[in-house]
Amino acid sequence: MIIVLKKNATPQEIDHICTKVRELGLTPNVSRGVERVVIGVIGDEEKLQVQPLEVFPGVEHVMSILKPYKLASRDYRTENSEFEMNHGVKVGGKKIVVMAGPCSVENYDMLLNVAKAVKKSGASFLRGGAFKPRTSPYSFQGLGEEGLKYLRQAADETGLLVCTEVMDTRQVELVSQYADMLQIGARNMQNFDLLKECGISKKPVLLKRGLSATVKDLLMSAEYLLSKGNFKVMLCERGIRTFETSTRNTLDLNAIPVIKKETHLPVLVDPSHGTGFRDYVAPMAMAGVAAGCDGLMVEVHECPEEAKSDGEQSLRPKQFDELMAKARAVARAVGRDI
Ligand code: PEP
Ligand code: MN
Known about the structure:
By secondary structure, the protein is of the alpha/beta class. The chain folds into two domains: 2-63, Phospho-2-dehydro-3-deoxyheptonate aldolase, domain 1 (Alpha-Beta Plaits, 2-Layer Sandwich), CATH 3.30.70.1140; 83-333, Aldolase class I (TIM Barrel, Alpha-Beta Barrel), CATH 3.20.20. It is built from ten helices and 14 strands. It has helices at residues 11-23, 108-121, 145-158, 172-178, 192-201, 215-227, 255-262, 271-275, 278-291, 317-333, and strands at 2-5, 27-32, 37-42, 59-63, 83-84, 90-91, 97-101, 125-127, 161-165, 181-184, 205-208, 233-237, 267-269, 295-299. The protein is elongated. The two termini are 37 Å apart. The model has no long low-confidence stretch (mean pLDDT 96). The site of manganese (II) ion has 5 residues, from loops.
């Protein structure tokens, strides 16, 4: 249910409505748009039968959101969501944000070199996994807290933000101490307890689409975060499983305009996991920008042949720099910046 307020609704009227909604055992979420204020009401809508909200001062009309995702839907918020982070980085704005770094954090020197390189090329986030979701239990599982410390240190030294994966509810507090943005990986997109915990943490979240998840599934998972009051959410298209075997995954670029239509949340494209091969990363990064994404995530490694994970899809710093130049040209052509 959303309550659309009159253009001239006063702060007192808004507070009064929110108080009434809470008294009914429901949760109000106030969204302040350019034109007017809207209050999203989450909970058992039956309770509103006893207290019609149309009669309250300041209310223009009340309507149901028919989509299963409520707070994530464009009905709740018509404008694109934007949020600001440290170093003046704006997520969801005209400028496309770029996250780059190795698949896994392996050692400090390598991480710092990559951080310096990607910063110089225009990235604003350093990415890298300290906790790695690996198919095989015998593969490198990440450096854990040591990796988080390296990320924080390398990012602080270069003026970058940190985006890193949190795999388990028990890690949310720890990862939050070091990261600026929590990454929920594809394999955890429907780990509902993790979503709830990250929602409660209020840290910005990058939510990656599951390997076999529909856009609707992705938006329902985002709804878990929003329903806990965390609106600093960026979605990520990172490729889905299809019958195609010439690439690691199939980057579903259709999802970008669909997501932009269905939700106000920003969306990022990950052409590294989306293709699985270095040669395809730059073309699909450009395609993502052309399709209207708000961010890119690219794996970069100093020496990909020696990477502990995802070397085949990792770019060398010089290749990343070339990708940025191409992506920038496409961004300009579609009225964006990088
Ligand atoms: C990653 O970003 O390194 C990663 C593991 O991604 P995904 O969850 O999309 O596979
Ligand atoms: Mn990876």
